[in-house]
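User: These chains co-purify. Model them together.
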Amino acid sequence: MKNNIAALSLLLLSTATVAVAQEKASPLEISGSVDTYFKYDFNKSGNIKTYFAGEQNSVSLGMIDLALKKTTGKASFVGELSFGPRGQYESIPDAAGGYSATANGFNIQNLYINYAFSDKFSMAAGYMGTFVGYEVISPAANFNYSTSYLFGSGPFQNAGIKGTYSFSDKVSLMLGLFNEWNQYRASRGVSSVGGQLMVSPVKGWTAYLNGLHGLDGYGNYSTVLDLTTAYQISEKVKIGLNAADLNAGDDKFGYSGVALYPQYAFTSSVALGLRGEYFTYKGISGAPNTSVTSITLSGNIKSGGLTFIPEVRFDNDKDFSQGFLKSDGTTLTKSASQFSLAAVYSF
Amino acid sequence: MKSLRTLLVLFAICFQLKAQKNIELLKDETGKYTYYEVVLTQVAGDSLMLRMTDFIAKNGKELRMQSKSAMGIIADGKMVIHKSLAIASHPTGEIKYNFNFEKTTNKYRFWLTDFQLVPYSKDRYGNFVPSTTIAAPLEKEVGKSAKEQWEDYKLQVATYATDFADRLKLHLASSGKVTPKPEEKKVISKTW
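Assistant: Joint model of the two components:
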């Protein structure tokens, strides 16, 4: 009996200790997300690939994403790892720098150290999510679950060193030196120079003008110019825009595209958003350009950390560049459409 | 018997901890959540104003002066709220508020009000940043799914306001004199 009381006292003491400890904020931040989805293509073929969710009639995994952040004085680090198709071979290289669907490895989204020299100037070095483009790899940070052609064509990450100077809350400038796209280490030296000008002309409107020149993910020296902007017009209405142009090699092949993202929030938990995109692949060595048009309608239904994303998407490939197939599985077609339902949990 | 007494003491500690957590914000006559306090003091009015200005300057990340008159000070404030998990936490948003301070003979009052929530989301670099520029008042009626989270925000605001008030009252009551640093002890040198 005495022993039982002593054990109970010890248990209560630990409970009390934990309660006290919880009152203090931990300096180590842990966050992340988990996502899974069902996708059905109306032509019964995995037509619309756009990097993720390329299969048909399948309940599939996205990824688990785990991030750590710690700040000590002016220094901080972020380490973010992904496990699962979306965060492994579908977007992020493994430790060996490859994209194998059969090998598991550490797939890094972010791994960098930041030092804030002052309130206005900071520098970061390491492997960072790219500053180019509107959409990102993590589904928790995108409104639509499927991704755009613009997202799939641009860089995902940049390893390098960058400095950011904030002139005010409304204007800042980032300049950096980087390896080629999406690689943990440079194969041909620090080959790229990039910059980002951020302006916020009115409250709620932020625009990023991005430029990156150097070795790209296709093995060419290229220049990509990108405009990413979003305007929160009211509590319910938000509009985003992404436009980009990439010229590579002497032939100036590459891509250009524009995507518009209007969104309407019915309540704080329910919102509807459209993505309309026009994307052009520039022809190599005088070959004609090919274009794709895509319309995506997505809902966001939130409950705590959970977000359901029901989505329908219609793509038109007038030049047959995407290899969309009819339901017979062999005949090429210009159009493809799909339904998906994703569940994304953020913590 | 001794163990039983220990048990009762531990129960009391647990209840006390729970009670500490149940701080509530009250609403003013306009229906806004407000932390309001009147404090009697022997500190002269001029000194109070100087100390108040000093408090704002020393808490620059938290408070930004908006206006100052002979009778008082108005400032904008900001606090960061966190999601607490069993082993860690991360910021989930920030609460903006208005801070008002007024003094008169032998007393002063201050209040924190107009609490507005700006939720955070994680950006592409793994940092938590404001997800919108449009803040929602803390008094907003939210749906069933967000209710628990909203109640937690209110609790965090109440805890913050209480802590803020304690820090402010201590600062205003202090003499403000700089205490000289004790002379640094040097290592004994054997050189002679």
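Chain A has two helices and 16 strands.
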